Amino acid sequence: MDENAAHADRFLTEEEQMYIHDDYTKQNDGEWQTVSYHKRSRKHSKLPPPENSSGSHCNGITATSPDVFRSIEQYSEDRRQKILEAQRASALLVNIPSQGTDRRSIPMTTETAMPKLLAESSYETQQDIQLIRFADYFGRAFASVSSAQFPWLKTFREASVSKFVDIPLSHISEDVYKIAVDWLGQRSHEALGSFVLWSLDSIFDDLASHQAAAKGSKKVSQQLPSKSQVAIFVILAMALRRKPDVLINLLPIIRENPKYQGQDKLPVTVWMIAQASLGDLVVGLYMWTHVLLPILSGKSSSNPQYRDLILQLVERILSFPKARPILLNGAIKKGERIVPPSAFELLMRVTFPAPSGRVKATERFEAVYPILKEIALAGSSGSKAMNQVTQQILNSAFKAAGEGVPDLSREASDVFIWCLAQNSECYKQWDLLYLGNLEASVIVLRKLSDEWNEYSVKHPNLDSLRETLKSFMQKYSTYQLYKPILEIGEDHQQPMALTSAVYQSIAD
């Protein structure tokens, strides 16, 4: 450093001698590093006068040097500009109380600033304002991260669930994460619910801007570039992991409002439910069966990419340690089943399709089906709630059994017989359905006849079945009197023969 530069350092203020290393500006290695501020340690000593100087000196500065003060001022100004630019780009500016009523804004490290920010009590009773300030804090922290550095849309479309589930929380230190989620845990479900919807709206607005830009919309091209959404994803992930039940409260809105529906929004929905599942597996599976599984019965069911995303999430949930006992113990959440009868019917159909309808994903459904079936059928046998569930399941199983799909018929008839064993009222229900679907009744009766030894052991009280079979024989005799044989079909004797066979088995 030349003499003028050395003297310039002496004139710089302490603030100008601060190094700033930005945690949230993406480096060449693709990582974000911790924010820290280090004062330059320098021992200031009086500079000796130049040995070969012929002019007079004042404080070590040669008076005869041409334009010496201009050089000092220029150096100082350059240093000042660099520091200010770095501060604007990356420093965390957090408002904290100072003495008196004034407030000052100073750069702080994340670990230091977070507790002070969250400890403020200015808006103690206004949780919505507190949450907005919380979001603003992270917004400033990540202000320098551009959309190019955080291409969330591309990542969500191309990466697997196991890879994008930790984006972007993997870049948050454990200390900051713990402080933040502890603070979020003290907010009410109502306030967090509004906050989650606000965050989702922001993400979907950004998604819409990306889509419009891809279509070459003139309106979008005239707007400023989209800001990075990394802060929104960070706070949304922390909120859902800390209080996953918020999603259940928002389920009616998410399921019914078109704003939150659509194939283009599916990756975000999967990411969101994955965050909640990390906080509570039961909530994760509940949202999967109520939001994602129904998509497989719609237009998106033919899209292998979306089907794969939906399967990845449930496979991830079921693969967690002790997932089975946790989910069985939580089979009923807030009075509702996490795998309701309607979801179980859909699950049967996607797991046991017609031979021509099998796809690569079918084997994956077959792998997760047993535990999901176990959860769907879990409950206290004989209870009022369980009796209602068995009657609902019996209806859907009876219908599926008579549709002529071999694998589906076998599984549905098994479920149908299980319902009979759980609830004696199901026999009365079968009696009412009998003539309306003779094909299904034939399949169930044949199964009872073929597997009678096993069935009779599991169901020692057969009085209800005996009375139901008597009713069948009477109804079918009357049915034959009014229906020509051609309408009944070639196998018109099957229902009567099978009914008689099962009835005889009971008598024996």
From TrEMBL:
Q: What is this protein called?
A: Uncharacterized protein
Assembly and interaction partners: Constitutively interacts with CASP4; required for the localization of procaspase 4 to the ER.
Q: How does it sit in the membrane?
A: Multi-pass membrane protein
The UniProt entry, under Pfam families, shows: TMEM214
Give yes or no: UniProt keyword Phosphoprotein: no
Fetch the InterPro entries from UniProt: TMEM214 (IPR019308)
Keyword Cytoplasm present in the record's keywords: the answer is no
Localization recorded for this chain is:
Endoplasmic reticulum membrane
Species annotation: Hevea brasiliensis
